[in-house]
UniProtKB/TrEMBL annotation:
Species this protein is from: Neolamprologus brichardi
Name of this chain's protein: Ig-like domain-containing protein
Pfam families assigned to the protein according to its UniProt record, in alphabetical order: C1-set, MHC_II_alpha
Topology within the bilayer: Single-pass type I membrane protein
Domain Ig-like positions: 105-194
Length: 244
């Protein structure tokens, strides 16, 4: 996460007019490319430093009754900018070793926009949420082939907890036996995460591996459980047959 640093200095300045004393707020700030030095009276800017024209600007009309500020304020503003940028360098050096905040997606959901009918066009939605920073990279596969046509991706949206959500869509026509995969990549994930939609048993083990070696565990367990049950049934059958 890139760190942007802006230094602001707030202070109080007394200026003198013929009618008495006025207390003003002074705001001085800087960034890598810009600087600001202003005087504010009753929420009105009465003076500011124009660093492009190298002069101080009295922003109130000449006929207005307002305090007179001391001479040399622009030169003081320039000096404040030099100090501010030195402090900016020091702050950036002190912060460069701070660990970057990385949060992996805590939820990946895949579903269709309407009820599925074989041969009728539909849209698959892959919704990813809970990640930081943005964005995520989402790719689609149909069986073992990458799909680009008919895909779209929304911009990241901020969640209340400061994390992000993002949605990818795929227009498709459902057919029996097809399996679609939504593959999610993010800087906080050590391996891509894949969510599947379609027949769980229509892919061979080789096809699962081709899609992603780190597939969604719930689908692998479904296949493994089915194979295990069939194995036990076959074992019981052979045992009984052998005793006859």
């Amino acid at each position: 996460m890139k760190v942007w640093v802006l230094l602001l200095i707030l202070s109080s300045v007394l200026c003198v007019s013929a009618d008495g004393l006025y207390e003003m707020n002074s705001v001085s700030g800087c960034s890598d490319t810009d600087g600001e030095d202003v005087l504010i009276l009753d929420n009105e800017v009465v003076w500011y430093a124009d660093f492009n024209k190298h002069t101080g600007v009295d922003s109130l009309p000449a006929f207005a009754d307002h305090p007179r500020c001391p001479l040399g304020m622009y030169e003081e503003a320039v000096a404040n900018q030099q100090i501010c940028r030195q402090n900016l360098k020091m702050a950036r050096t002190a912060m460069k070793d701070f660990p970057k905040e990385l949060d992996a997606p805590y939820s990946v959901t895949i579903y269709t926009t309407v009820n599925v009918e074989i041969g009728v066009q539909n849209t698959l939605i892959c919704h990813v949420t809970g990640f930081y920073p943005a964005p995520v990279n989402v790719t689609w596969r149909k069986n073992t082939k990458k799909v680009v046509e008919g895909t779209s991706m929304t911009v990241p949206l901020s969640n209340k907890d400061g994390s992000f959500s993002q949605t990818s869509k795929l227009d498709f026509v459902p057919k029996g036996g097809d399996v679609y995969a939504c593959n999610v990549e993010h800087v906080a994930l050590t391996q891509p995460f894949t969510k599947f939609y379609g027949s769980r048993l229509s892919l061979s083990i080789q096809m699962w591996s081709a899609l992603n070696p780190f597939w969604d565990l719930q689908y692998f367990c479904g296949v493994g459980l089915t194979v295990g049950v069939l194995g036990v049934a076959a074992g019981i059958y052979l045992f009984i047959r052998g005793r006859k």
